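ARCHIVE CARD
Drawer: 12
Card no.: 0347
Subject: one protein chain, sequence and derived structure
Cross-reference: see card 0346
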Amino acid sequence: MALAPLDEAPDDAALAAAGVSERLREALVGSGRRVWLATQILEDSAGDHDWRLTALVDLAECDQADAAVVHLLRVGPQS
């Protein structure tokens, strides 16, 4: 999966591939909010690297809170 540059919002295909529900994707597009899609591969003792955390970072919320505001969407095996 290709990642969007940091100055661009992820497109619908990237959000869908990351497991973001259709309902949330429609809400994000309709709201015009700027978000980052974040994925973190989890290290494991077997070295499989087959689990990840997927999250959205809403840039307006981060500005308002003056801190990173991360919405965890999914934890599980890569699909």
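Annotation on reverse: The chain has one domain: 12-77. The chain has three helices and three strands.
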